[in-house]
Amino acid sequence: MATAPRPRTSTRDPEELGRRLTAWLDRTLPGARISGITVPGSNGMSSETLLFDIEHPDTPIRACALRLAADPAAYTVFPTYDMARQHRVMSLVAEHTDVPVPRVEWLEEDPGPLGAPFFVMARAEGRVPPDVMPYTYEGNWVHAATDAERAELQEQSISLLARLHDQFPAKEAAFLLPESGTGSPLRRHVESQRAYYEWVVRDLARSPLLERAFDRLAELWPADEGEPVLNWGDARIGNVIYQADGFRPVAVLDWEMAAYAPREVDLGWTVYLHRFFQDLTVGFGQPGLPGFLRREDLERRYAELTGHTPRDMEFHTLYAALRHGIVMLRIAYRQAHFGEVEIPADPDGLILHHASLAAMVQGTYW
């Protein structure tokens, strides 16, 4: 099946990164040696990941993963990358919940050693639902699983979200509120997304569809926003490492979008990001996984696990699709920057899920 080329994710040289990392580690843990340096094929377009092993009798962790802030020369997806914030969130989640997060170890905020701030954490082994090609496509372990196995994966995954929201002391997450903005946590969260959109389109074509979606959000605004909790932020199964031979999570990854917001912000993201892949798969002529991660099933099970019945989900799934649309637009402009695509006359065409987003705006999607 023909697909678009994978966008460039970095301008960095992995070998040079390895040499600089070795020099940094020698100062941090004198006498330590690094081996097995690899860059995972699924490296993202936000933070980058480097995998390696440490050989030293006193090292606190041996199998390591390094999360490095995005390369400033690579037309970054987000305007800022706060690695200390991610390090703090993961440390607090490990302290206050039983949600499996990798043990975080060293934090380096000085960009000198590797060209950007980074932190090192323990590497978890297992398997991850793929994004390219998506797990909804034929030919990967999620699609090949039985209905009962996918039901277990779904149950384990929604349980992660429920436990995070219930176990983490909400006030401990208040530091994640955007520094700018006013009003409730949800108001400030949406204002921060509006600011992100303005950053994406500065000196470039604006998106009429995204702006209509913001207007529709205002019309659907919840009468009762609900109490804020710690939100994982990028709450989807593609950010979970599962057992190599099973369906239980062993590590929850990618906390850069963590937030202090109502529970439904996370839940809406979980629902919509699966629908994004499912819709994409159906558009390419495959059935996908229509019985997996269905909105009604996730809402029902979340309510059973937490005692909190999700509400205003039309608002929150639209918000998730809008937020994803802003990211998609930035990635498309980034591809144009590197000469990988041309910008069409209608910038909405750059948003891969523009049809489903438009249907949500019109109230005809669900």
Please tell me about this protein's structure.
With 366 residues, this protein is α+β, with helices and mostly antiparallel strands. Strands 1-2-3-5-4 form a five-stranded antiparallel sheet, sandwiched between helices. The chain starts with 13 loop residues before the first helix and ends with a helix. It has helices at residues 14-28, 83-96, 141-144, 147-167, 185-201, 208-219, 263-283, 295-306, 313-337, 354-362; strands at residues 33-38, 48-55, 63-68, 104-108, 118-122, 228-231, 240-242, 249-252, 259-262.
Number of alpha- plus pi-helical segments: 10
Helix/strand class: alpha+beta
**Poorly predicted residue ranges:** 1-8
The SSE order reads HEEEHEEHHHHEEEEHHHH
Architecture (CATH level 2) name of the largest domain: Alpha-Beta Complex
Total tally of structural domains: 2
Could you tell me the radius of gyration in angstroms?
A: 20 Å
- How far apart, in Å, are the first and last alpha carbons? 29 Å
Layout: helices, strands, pairs:
Layout: H1 14-28, E1 33-38, E2 48-55, E3 63-68, H2 83-96, E4 104-108, E5 118-122, H3 141-144, H4 147-167, H5 185-201, H6 208-219, E6 228-231, E7 240-242, E8 249-252, E9 259-262, H7 263-283, H8 295-306, H9 313-337, H10 354-362
Antiparallel strand pairs: 1-2, 2-3, 3-5, 4-5, 6-9, 7-8
Helix pairs in contact: 4-8, 5-9, 6-9, 6-10, 7-9, 9-10
Give a short overview.
By secondary structure, this protein is an alpha+beta fold. The chain has helices at 14-28, 83-96, 141-144, 147-167, 185-201, 208-219, 263-283, 295-306, 313-337, 354-362, and strands at residues 33-38, 48-55, 63-68, 104-108, 118-122, 228-231, 240-242, 249-252, 259-262.
